[in-house]
Amino acid sequence: MTTTAKAMVHAFYGKNPAYSYFNGCSTGGRQGVMEAQRYPDAYDGILAGAPVINFPKMQTGQLWGQVVMLAEDNPVAACKFAAAVTAEVDACDTVGDGVRDGVIGDALACRFDLSTLIGQVTPCGTITAADVAVMEKIRQGPRRQNDDFLWYGLSPGAPWMTPTCPPSVVRVASCCCGTEKRTSECRFRAQWTTTTGSGRNSVLVGHSSSCGCSLPQGSATAAAAPGHS
Q1: Which residues contact 4 (CB under 8 A, 6 or more apart)?
Q2: Which of 15, 29, 57, 96 is most buried, most CB within 10 Å of its CB?
Q3: What is the 3-state secondary structure (H, E, C) of 80-92?
Q4: Average pLDDT, the chain
Q5: How many whole angstroms separate alpha carbon 225 and alpha carbon 163?
Q6: What end-to-end distance do the CA atoms of the chain give, in Å?
Q7: CA distance 77 to 73
Q8: Percentages of the chain per state (helix, strand, coil), in multiples of 5
Q9: pLDDT at residue 2 greater than cutoff 50
């Protein structure tokens, strides 16, 4: 496809493109990483966001929330997870950037004790120690029965669940972020690390993300399930 596209550019403009760049996220991010590995000279730069690599382990992470709740025989209600995220973001909002904007500037530097939520009343019941134990295991990420590492957990501030947004509300990443005319007000940040190559053949790979949106309580419902960003 890249070779054909460059040929079409040359045929139309009579010259080759000055620069060629690839940008993709999720499956597109995986394609970008594969492109860099197989055809490193095809592009001058590749932006591979949230690449779906290490697929079997990543899918274990996708299912981990349900696995934990089944193993603990404690299906935690969605609004309890939402309350936990709200408390976590509020506690660590200024970490990393010093700005209170509803987004954790450096999620990996956040040190929030989930046990402080025990006893908090939510619309779907009081958060219990058993609920917090489930949250902590999901945050930790998939482990074998002997506690050996399988895959990464969720970064602080990342939602435990993917919301089902009302018809009038636009979903951006894992957030319900206002009406279609107000999507720019949804704040979304990703932390990046360069993992492949350098210079003109560098690949920028996203490893975690968080988002912050302001919605009235109860304006979105959700099912408890960890995301993959």
Answers
A1: none
A2: 29
A3: HHHHHHHHHHHHH
A4: 77
A5: 9
A6: 27
A7: 13
A8: 35, 20, 40
A9: yes
